[in-house]
């Protein structure tokens, strides 16, 4: 019998995985010929050849991605013709819930993603169609991303009624016995297999080989002992926790001895802060969680450094304020806000200094921001009331002083301010010979909360990381080079840009996207279900790495959709020039207020029968905005690139002149070489 040929697909080129699955690869090499392929063009050529492989093993989730759709369809065709395709190893680590339904539908199986946990599973003694189970372990503990809705004769392993989750942190709980970490189904004349094991367990090696119809009788034990964690000893001494020790300490899968009083539970038992719901951890772990934590640690250090510097500026400003140097105090409070972020206390102090300088409008805006972010800040309401009173906004000032009185009923000063403000209002109304009912004097904070509800993004445990303080990283500041300075880099926002700081395209955030915990720019159109480009979009289409308690996961999402649709009615382009910076948290406090005022004015004009919109000069007043003509050119260019694999029409023409097609793997390398000439 001739040796079998196995095609191993590694299109994500994650070389670290080879070391993790070396036991599987060495076991396969002992009984078969392996062909490792990292390029989609080569994979398609092999699958379409007159001598296709005996079986295919996909060790990453590339076939689930939209850009590899044609390859996945070719794999389905190959299986239906009698081939075997197995998805395993690092596949489940990148298997996104967003792509699961489409992926399984393409394969014609009713499967769906299930839970992610470690438990003990048992071999299906009734047998699995098309798969020899002889020699497989009768049971073993496995940490896996399970699948559900699998037919009984396609289930390789499944938990029993006594199986429990196994964790060092969370209490043992019952598991869904209808889910499986390993499934195998007939596809036409061939077969498709799935293993959700994320740790390359030794018994899973045999499962994958059995799915590939390879003999498993010579598979030896995996003697590699990986590190499962790190410990900190006295004096900060680091130590490694071997995987074997980690597994020996796991909860017994068949044990029901969890203490009823919860004394053995060592998980997160934190409550809520200021009525804010705690972040709920996803059932399925995020594949790049380690990278997120590393970035968060670096960001925390930067935030702490900047906050310390901002506190010094604030204290210095307080000293100048006390000696009557209000102008210098304003400068220092402003620097504190820019160094770290506009904390309510900084803004309230700024309002106090501006009041002393009789800059009433600016003082109102500063105090307005302070109360918007912290609705419990009494001094913020009082100072805004003073500023509004001097601006002639008597009704708003009275409401602010009344709020202060509600917070501190024993303060006679508030009653005095209310009486004095009403007296001034009545005097002005008598002068005008018409009494104002207050309808035209609307509290601007009501408008802000109605339209944007910005305070939530600044609240503890809900703050977007871009609001902590602007990043110092090169990627955050990188705005591209040359003529492509304003165009987002699709590679950076999707799979990563290998050109780094010399990339001609923009890595920095803009008004059409929001920064996630991996530093990618996520499409705002996508988050409100308004993106027409789909997989062709330059920005990331995934909210997995955005904070789980952001507006994109809440009921207020409908409010953003309505706002966008309203503005879109009379503005073909540049909607996010108006609202994007408020949605992603990058707008400075003054621009947020100005954009809100513009929106309120636009709404008023529309309600009165006027036309919605603004003059060309208004574009320059919006934070991060561009001229209307430039924005339209931007949209047209994006349309071209969405049609042409990311290239403009002129770039496609140039590539064709060089004998290169836009879908060739090296097309971007050629284009970058041409641009550098």
UniProtKB/TrEMBL annotation:
GO biological process terms held by the UniProt record: post-translational protein targeting to endoplasmic reticulum membrane
InterPro entries: SGT, TPR-like_helical_dom_sf, TPR_rpt, Znf_CCCH
Zinc finger (C3H1-type): 488-510, 517-544
Domain C3H1-type: 488-510, 517-544
Cellular component GO terms held in the UniProt record: membrane; TRC complex
One Pfam short name: TPR_1
Sequence ranges of the TPR repeats: 378-411
Superkingdom of this protein's organism: Eukaryota
GO molecular function, one term: molecular adaptor activity
Transmembrane segments: none
UniProt KW keywords: Metal-binding, Repeat, TPR repeat, Zinc, Zinc-finger
Coiled-coil residue spans: none
Residue ranges, annotated region (Disordered): 240-271
Identification of the protein by name: C3H1-type domain-containing protein
Organism: Lentinula detonsa
Lineage of producing organism: Eukaryota, Fungi, Dikarya, Basidiomycota, Agaricomycotina
